[in-house]
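[09:14] KT: can someone run the structure on this one? pasting the chain below
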Amino acid sequence: KREIGAIRGLLPSAKLIHESQIAAGRMRITVRFFAAARDLVGHDSLQRELPDGSTVEAFKQHLADEFPDLAGLLRHSMIAIGHEYATDAAVLANGNDVAVIPPVSGG
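[09:31] RB: done, structure tokens below
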């Protein structure tokens, strides 16, 4: 129990997702937005439900449909699942933490 408490302390924004709260055939993910993506969406993070087995490509299309101003930026953004970059073919799973990381510039 002590280890679980320590982990929760490290992840204060993490919420437990109960299977009973998710419709059959659906999964819930947390989406985190950075830099220009955060500015376009107006939020640091959101929770979204997607069909089970959704790919990163389907996820990006879902975001583009919901936030049309984000569509152009998504074509050039990296997507990370957890702490690893993901390809468009990667399959998402219930409870994933998905980051939208736009390109950065500067010198």
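[09:33] KT: thanks! The chain is about 30% helix and 25% strand.
[09:34] RB: yep, looked fine to me
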